[in-house]
Amino acid sequence: xxxxxxxxxxxxxxxxxxxxxxxxxxxxxxxxxxxxxxxxxxxxxxxxxxxxxxxxxxxxxxxxxxxxxxxxxxxxxxxxxxxxxxxxxxxxxxxxxxxxxxxxxxxxxxxxxxxxxxxxxxxxxxxxxxxxxxxxxxxxxxxxxxxxxxxxxxxxxxxxxxxxxxxxxxxxxxxxxxxxxxxxxxxxxxxxxxxxxxxxxxxxxxxxxxxxxxxxxxxxxxxxxxxxxxxxxxxxxxxxxxxxxxxxxxxxxxxxxxxxxxxxxxxxxxxxxxxxxxxxxxxxxxxxxxxxxxxxxxxxxxxxxxxxxxxxxxxxxxxxxxxxxxxxxxxxxxxxxxxxxxxxxxxxxxxxxxxxxxxxxxxxxxxxxxxxxxxxxxxxxxxxxxxxxxxxxxxxxxxxxxxxxxxxxxxxxxxxxxxxxxx
Length: 423
Ligand code: UD1
Hints:
Elements: E1 9-12, E2 18-22, H1 27-40, E3 43-47, H2 53-64, E4 68-72, E5 75-79, H3 90-95, H4 102-110, E6 112-116, H5 129-137, E7 141-145, E8 148-152, E9 162-164, H6 170-181, E10 186-190, H7 196-207, E11 211-213, E12 219-223, E13 232-234, H8 239-251, E14 255-259, H9 270-275, E15 279-283, E16 286-290, E17 300-302, H10 314-321, E18 327-331, H11 341-347, E19 351-355, E20 358-362, E21 371-373, H12 377-389, E22 393-397, H13 399-403, H14 409-415, E23 419-422
């Protein structure tokens, strides 16, 4: 039997979007929280958990590890009481790069772990050296063997350590926080990542009985406790999905009101919408954007660790800059290979030149529809944003990348009045 070709997203461009959306839960919070649920050994209820293929992958890993996982609407219940297995099969590990965060949870709970390297990915090499060095400092012995990581904790239990990162890696910060939660003694982590998702993970772990201080700041102290229990937790709103839907409305000169998002977490992206000529209204946890007229190109967009401009929003913003008046200089400081959407945007008539980490976008009055292919999650979102304002029908292939991070993207865009269908 042949492989059924994946459906493409077909977008009839040029419709002005206008509507209200309730934001999905954050992918980058839900994944480490589900991972940490394994460590607790209890029963946890995770609310506002987005319906994404990456979340499905995390659930498959949890089940393989022996957890009972059920899902109803946006609530995922993880029963980790019987979990026992300490290995993650290669095919599960490769489904999702962030599965490396399972290493800290498995080592802390089981005293050993065997997983394969998550490997490189579509964003360029994605080393895990910071993760491994930190876990070694906490007493793990890790042997790298033909693409596998064979790990043991000779003392039986990890111990606290002073750990300083040379770069504030999000995943490595999460790995250390999870592993240190039940380690013996205190862990002091400096140059930790400060993303809102780190704070969300800390809130969940704290609800489970962990003692964590400073999450969301550069220095985190974790006082290890003997054991944890399950907890109920609601995942924060997805700030990257928020930026993407606001970009989708802005590029059509339309309007969008988003509820369920924290405007503070969007502090580095909202001023750029204003610089581009959009009006914003913020009330509590609702952000409303109103576009109109041609967008003005922002001069510079430099991606930085939080609270700087997020690398995950770079591609959707590039799609907006592509049709704005003027030039924008993008500097991608987080990942080496995060401009794979550029060639596809150029096929739609965008004028973009890339030199290493720098992309210079010269805005054009309009884009033309084309058959394009997403090669990563946020790059796919950028092609959709571009398709919404292009003349004619754009077909976006490679949608499986997009479904990793956007819950029901067709339904969300339709709710804003877009003409989209799969086919
Ligand atoms: C997380 C997010 C991803 C986001 C990224 C940066 C999740 C599931 N994913 O990915 O959406 O784009 O943060 O905000 O939360 N690095 C090393 N050695 C390491 C670890 C990282 O050199 O051991 C480098 C990476 O190659 C990359 C940079 O650090 O260049 C940032 O990576 P990191 O912050 O770890 O990103 P992730 O946790 O993988």
